[in-house]
């Protein structure tokens, strides 16, 4: 819902750009840039300089004032001053929820073209949250289809930035333009492309690493098994997977935060091992020997542990996804060289099972859940898709508990041209695109298997590996 508000003093040429939120962002678009945005003037309620209180309502000659298509700023919340005008709309009164609609209707009645509702940052007004501007902020009681364009702006920003342009208490020279950069398709897909590159990089990188280890005779994993063992594995594998994943989902559904915490602790150990293994594997191509090699390996070991401990401590930070992704990349690469399934038939069974499992958990569960929610989305995000909260106002993330994050997922922030408006102290994080490691590791097992199959020439193994990679 964020938009830019560009304000300019036509006489002095001074200009500022601030962030606001747009009430009608779900149903109406605004200009994509400042040049194409329609300029509007700035007027004050009842014709009084810097008057931002809706009450008292105009009386006498003030009732003849019309705002001639300008924007009028009004304080969003109404304080009870003892008058009938404020009595019904102040905090704790039956109609306090309709204060925004009342203000917008009054402004429209007197000819205002745009309503600017001024929000006092952090003010405690609702029973379950405070007033903040954030990405999903809007007033659910303002009729978005009938109301004039309505924007929300912090009071201190308006007084300091916008009113700072006025000279000699004259606001007639100030013009306002509201705009929001449009999202090009290529920009929208950028986060998807980055996620795809991460996934494919892990799969192909792990397969190549396994290929060269196999070529150098370092691959000690058995890639062929007796037919009886293979058949037994194929027969019991779906049952084992079914029991395991259903158990995980049940535990996560009833004890999500406990499971997520345990997984975060476990990631310290797993991530430590994987980060150390991948780093030392790269350094193995550097000729080192004796005490120097031991010292470097010990240093890498301690640094790997330190990185994982730091990630655990700051796992709720908005930027925690960076370290999490780095560790998960090393995990995917390490699994490619340390885990095998007996043959393609066994791998096919696993991939079909995981495909059906993902489809059911993501797209099937909304048809069975009473709230119509995706069980997988709820468990991964930790945020219910519909809340039992009786407070209809959207509550800022700063006033809601941050769920324990699941560690074994890749995360890439969505590309947003309004990211400069995001207050991380309020939002507590970026909006992220996520991908489970299973969607990387399982295809990676197939590609890696093709690259290390016994009984085939190097050329054929590379050919089959490339052929499987094309399907990614």
* Category by helix and strand content: alpha+beta
Please report which band the strand proportion falls in: under 5%, 5-15%, 15-25%, 25-35%, 35-45% or over 45%. 5-15%
Structure summary, number of beta strands? 9
Helical segment count: 14
The helix/strand order is: EEEEHHEEHEHHHHHHHHEHEHH
Shape label: elongated
The value of Rg in angstroms is 30 Å
**How many domain modules?**
2
Mean pLDDT: 86
Biggest sheet, spatial arrangement of strands: 3-7-1-2-6-5-4
Percent of residues in helical segments? 40-55%
Q: In whole angstroms, how far apart are the ends?
A: 35 Å
Low-confidence segments = 222-228
Q: Main beta sheet, described? A: 7 strands, mixed
Detailed description of the structure:
By secondary structure, the chain is of the alpha+beta class. It folds into two domains: 2-179, 3-Layer(bba) Sandwich (Glucose Oxidase, domain 1), CATH 3.50.30.30; 185-470, no CATH class. It is 45% helix and 11% strand. It contains 14 helices and nine strands. The strands form two sheets. Strands 3-7-1-2-6-5-4 form a seven-stranded mixed β-sheet, sandwiched between helices. Strands 8-9 form a two-stranded antiparallel sheet. Strand 1 and strand 2 (15-22) form a beta hairpin. Helix 6 runs parallel beside helix 10 and helix 10 (344-364) runs antiparallel to helix 13. Belongs to the peptidase A22B family. One of its GO terms (molecular function) is aspartic endopeptidase activity, intramembrane cleaving. One of its GO terms (cellular component) is lysosomal membrane. InterPro entries: Peptidase_A22B_SPP, Preselin/SPP. Keywords: Hydrolase, Membrane, Transmembrane, Transmembrane helix.
